[in-house]
Structure formats: structure tokens, C-alpha cells
Design a protein that fits this description.
125 residues, mainly beta, OB fold (Dihydrolipoamide Acetyltransferase, E2P), five-stranded antiparallel sheet, four-stranded antiparallel sheet
Length: 125
């Protein structure tokens, strides 16, 4: 259900959650700390994707509020990595899988654009 200002209520198995969507060329959907990209041609052209790379990118123009990890740090799946702020809402970026942070490519206060990689994680550890 559309709530306005890019917000949608998603009900899954009786659990209500809020998703945020922003459209540039593709539509970026932010839900529970994960980023899903729906191509401009629509989901029939290519299934909506989420992978380790897009999960660590800015889903929309946002300001980096805080960085919760540093290079060399091991992180668990769903660990909070970065907090962004967009449209007066805080957006947590979480680890898609367990791994080790190898690089942080942003800093608090920085304005980041959609698709910009915020950090790198080595998942082989």
C-alpha cells in the first residue's frame, strides 16, 4: 500500500513493514536494511535483484550519518554497517552475509548518490 513520499507498507505473513523506493533510471527499493533494484524495463525484463554488491550501495541520494565498522573488522550477517539519512528518514545498511570489511568508501556527513559503493566486504573469510 502506498503511503506517499516514496514510502510503502509491505505486509508479509501478517507482519507489516515499511519499504522506501526511489526512482532514477531504475527503481531502488529499501526494505529491512537491504536494497533491491528493479530495472527500468520492469520485473518481466529481468527479475528484481539483490546481491552482495548492490546491498552495499546507496539506494538513493542520502547523507552518511554514521559508520559502525572499520576496515579489518569481521561482521556477521545482518550486522549494521552504515546509517544513512534520506527524506528525513534513517536508512540502516546491513551486511548481506558474514565477512570482513576491507574498505570504507564514505565518511560521516558525506552526501552519497544512488549506486555509489559505500564499502567493500571480503566474504571469503
Amino acid at each position: 500500500m502506498a503511503l506517499g513520499a516514496g514510502r510503502y507498507q509491505v505486509i508479509d505473513n501478517g507482519r507489516a513493514r515499511i519499504a522506501y523506493a526511489a526512482t532514477a533510471r531504475d527503481t531502488w527499493v529499501f526494505l529491512d536494511g537491504r536494497v533491491f533494484v528493479v530495472p527500468a524495463a520492469g520485473p518481466s525484463a529481468r527479475r528484481a535483484t539483490t546481491d552482495d554488491a548492490t546491498a552495499l550501495m546507496a539506494p538513493m541520494p542520502a547523507t552518511v550519518v554514521s559508520i559502525h565498522v572499520k576496515p579489518g573488522q569481521d561482521v556477521a550477517r545482518e550486522a549494521l554497517l552504515i546509517t544513512l539519512e534520506a527524506m528525513k528518514m534513517e536508512l540502516p545498511i546491513k551486511a548481506p552475509r558474514a565477512g570482513r570489511v576491507t574498505a570504507v568508501s564514505c565518511r560521516p556527513g558525506e552526501l552519497v548518490q544512488p549506486g555509489v559503493r559505500l564499502m567493500e566486504i571480503d566474504y571469503a573469510t
